[in-house]
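[job 0412] stage=complex_fold ligand=pyridoxal-5'-phosphate status=START
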Amino acid sequence: MIPIHPRIEKLQPYVAGSRPEEGVRALKLNQNENRHPLSPKVEAAIRTLSPEMLQEYPDARCDRLREALSSVHGVPVSSILCGNGSSELITLLFRTFLREGDTVAVPDPTFALYANVADIAGVHVRAVPTDANFHMEPLALAAAAPQAVILANPNAPTGVCVTADRIEKLLQTYNGLVVIDEAYIDFAPDGTSVLGLTERYDHLLVLRTFSKAYSLSGARVGFAAGNKRLIDAMLKGRETFSVNGFAQLVAEAAVTDQAHKNEMVGRILSTRERFAASLQAAGWTVWPSTTNFMLVSPPPGSLVAQKVYEGLLARHIYVRYFAAPRLDDKLRISVGTDEDMDLLLDALLRIERGGDAAMNR
Ligand SMILES: *Cc1c(COP(=O)(O)O)cnc(C)c1O
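[job 0412] stage=complex_fold status=DONE, emitting structure tokens
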């Protein structure tokens, strides 16, 4: 028998939000995708896909995409590294900067992928509890780990963010690697991002993705920004051709249309507030969100969150339920279009009233 690596053998695999079966019409609000239309520039780029793009190797360094990112974000090209989603960059940063037996600190709760990647790398995870409102003081992470801290800002699945100046305080006193995952930054208030600090602090790495605000989850593109020394090290250890040519093309088109992205973000934020108000009017608890998803709890005395989740699933409506402490009485709902949220609200109210045919099967 071929031995399986013990770390893999005992690994708790990362569980992504589930996908509907092929051919089933479903309302997917469980992976924080953007359900609004793509930029016309992206649509145009899709039409230029040529056979050569499949026959030839892509540009391993994603130069055109990095140049586009550089001019939009004001960060040098040499400080940017693109990857197959930010998920790949999370794996790569562990491989590049952390050794077996090292410790990283993360808030609790947070994106479950960090602990999964750490387990694979043999790195210990210190999960530092957030307060009753899921708020995290970045400095509290510093005390928990000498080698690195990873903070999703805004955090998932809570939707809470901290201001950039609080992260800067951490950078000023902590010498380990500071990774700030800005997957949801486009939805957050001004003064949240630390992308602009990457040139000033050589131990800061910022992660961004095209999966959320840009509506390109399927293209699999993300990027890391940081000091050139960090980026060069990651370049050395990376998977050479991880971002395919088609993905590079659509991502480049997406960044060059900031106006479209901003417009879609604006729609999502107004839908979020409208939906939050409707839910609250129906007695639900809604945690304040700075992202394109919301953490919500059914009214006391009605069905528990897991039952609501199951009732929605029976109607082919997908939201996220986490069977974890502090989260198992809540649902995480991605903000879709106004029509999506009306459908969802209608389903929620029917399920609560118990008059739902799908529930009585
Ligand atoms: C969705 C998400 C990502 C993005 O992952 P990709 O691999 O780029 O699709 C990264 N971090 C967090 C916290 C997320 O929620």
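Residues 32, 85-87, 111, 152, 156, 181, 183, 209, 211-212, 217, 222 surround pyridoxal-5'-phosphate (CB under 6 Å).
[job 0412] exit 0
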